[in-house]
Amino acid sequence: MASSTGLNSNTTPPTHAVPPQQSLDSLSPLEQEVLEEYALLLENLKKLSPLLESLSANPTAQVLDGLRMLERKTSLVSTLLKASVYSIVLQQEMLEGEG
């Protein structure tokens, strides 16, 4: 089941996340496997949380540079679009004036 989620199936969840053995004996193998996967997911989320928090608090220079470039390109496209629309409107007015 772990291999279908992209997690390493050889990784075992920590013992504190698994219920006591008596509780596990009353569960079916599928239920046990589901509980183990949830425990593994919990540990992975605990590891991921601080990393995501630091990334959200301090955007990388690469992301900021990319956003600056995108802002410049968007501004350029907007200016070119306005110029094109103005040119078309001006041409139409000139054609209507001649006709």
What share of the residues lie within helices? over 70%
Number of beta strands: 0
Low-confidence stretches: 1-10
Structural class: mainly alpha
Percent in strands: under 5%
Secondary-structure element pattern, one letter each? HHH
Measured between the Cα atoms of the first and last residue, the distance is 75 Å
Annotation field: number of helices: 3
Question: What's the alpha carbon Rg, rounded to whole Å?
Answer: 30 Å
- Main sheet properties: none
| Broad shape | elongated
Mean of residue pLDDT values: 81
Brief summary:
The chain is mainly alpha-helical and 99 residues long.
Walk me through the structure.
The chain is an all-alpha fold. It has three helices and no strands. The protein has helices spanning 21-25, 29-57, 61-98. It is elongated.
Keywords:
disordered N terminus, 3 helices, mainly alpha, elongated, 99 residues
Furnish the topology, listing elements before pairings.
Blueprint: H1 21-25, H2 29-57, H3 61-98
